[in-house]
UniProtKB/TrEMBL annotation:
Matches recorded under InterPro entries: AraC-bd, Homeodomain-like_sf, HTH_AraC, HTH_AraC-typ_CS, RmlC-like_jellyroll, RmlC_Cupin_sf, Tscrpt_reg_AraC-type_HTH
Domain HTH araC/xylS-type as annotated: residue spans: 161-262
PANTHER family: HTH-TYPE TRANSCRIPTIONAL REGULATOR NIMR, TRANSCRIPTIONAL REGULATOR-RELATED
Full protein name: AraC family transcriptional regulator
CDD domains (UniProt xref): cupin_NimR-like_N
Signal sequence interval, chain numbering: none
GO molecular function: DNA-binding transcription factor activity; sequence-specific DNA binding
Keywords: Activator, DNA-binding, Repressor, Transcription, Transcription regulation
PROSITE patterns in alphabetical order: HTH_ARAC_FAMILY_1, HTH_ARAC_FAMILY_2
Annotated organism of origin: Marinomonas ushuaiensis DSM 15871
Length: 263
């Protein structure tokens, strides 16, 4: 089996793929990176091993931290931005080799095994021909992805440009505790307008959206394993570990410690 790297654009590689059925790309996206709206004729898996991606597709923008990935079906128009920068990994699969995968675009949980497989496949992508062991790695990854359901904590991002400063600041600093009234003053728009934008574009209010941002960052910090629950609670803006644990249980039905043991 042969594999392509990122010497050419993804669509150029796909068009010249011949009998190849996978392409991998790695990009160090600087803070503020914004790609063009585009699509591919193959399935695409997008993952950031560091940083956060904003992936725009089907009139929505999804926030994708390192424990998530986006699966896109062929011909789906999409755009990628990285407000705080990201180490971007993308795998493109010829449609016939991922028949067990859903045609639906979705955000997936990335298990530690899937993460290592994505990185390993990227690291062997300089080879033009893969041996049987390397081919099996790709099949195991496909099997892992097929087991994942659409993630419950996927986070929609308002597309209204009037909220760009608010969105960027909260993602960069989840502990930010400015009230909606304070943001109203900063952005020079009414708090009622901010509320209306959130409810219309993402289906939840400002406070609930901010809590989701914090919990996504909490999962990221838990999986890094470098901070205690108390440290994480304070880092992301909760006044106490108990308040953080309560909010975490409301979404994940487990305490932070129990969640980590299961993942």
């Amino acid at each position: 089996m042969q594999i392509y790297t990122n010497a050419l654009s993804a669509n150029e590689q796909i068009n010249n793929s011949g009998d190849k059925f996978i392409i991998t790309r790695k990009i160090d996206m600087p803070a503020g990176y914004q790609g063009p709206l585009h699509h591919h004729s193959w399935y695409q898996l997008m993952y950031a091993s560091k940083g956060i991606l904003h992936v725009e597709y089907q009139n929505q923008i999804m926030l994708v931290p390192p424990q998530k990935a986006v699966w896109l079906a062929p011909t789906c128009d999409h755009r990628i931005t990285a407000p705080i920068g990201a180490k971007f990994h993308s795998l493109y699969f010829r449609p016939d080799v991922v028949a067990k995968m859903s045609d639906k675009n979705k955000v997936l949980d990335i298990t530690p095994l899937a993460r290592e497989l994505i990185l390993s496949i990227g690291n062997i992508s300089h080879k033009q021909v893969l041996d049987k062991t390397e081919q099996r790695l790709i099949q195991v990854l496909i099997d892992q992805l097929a087991l994942q359901s659409n993630n419950a904590l996927s986070l929609l991002i308002p597309s209204d440009k009037r909220l760009n400063q608010l969105i960027t600041q909260l993602i960069k600093e989840p502990s930010n505790s400015l009230s909606i009234e304070e943001w109203s003053t900063t952005l020079a728009i009414s708090s009622r307008t901010i509320t209306r934008i959130f409810n219309k574009e993402v289906g939840v209010g400002f406070k609930e959206w901010r809590q989701k941002v914090r919990l996504l960052e909490a999962v990221n910090l838990l999986e890094q394993g470098e901070m205690s629950v108390t440290e994480i609670a304070l880092e992301i803006g909760y006044n106490s570990p108990s308040a953080f644990t309560y909010a975490f249980k409301q979404v994940f039905e487990n305490s932070p410690v129990a969640y980590l043991k299961k993942h």
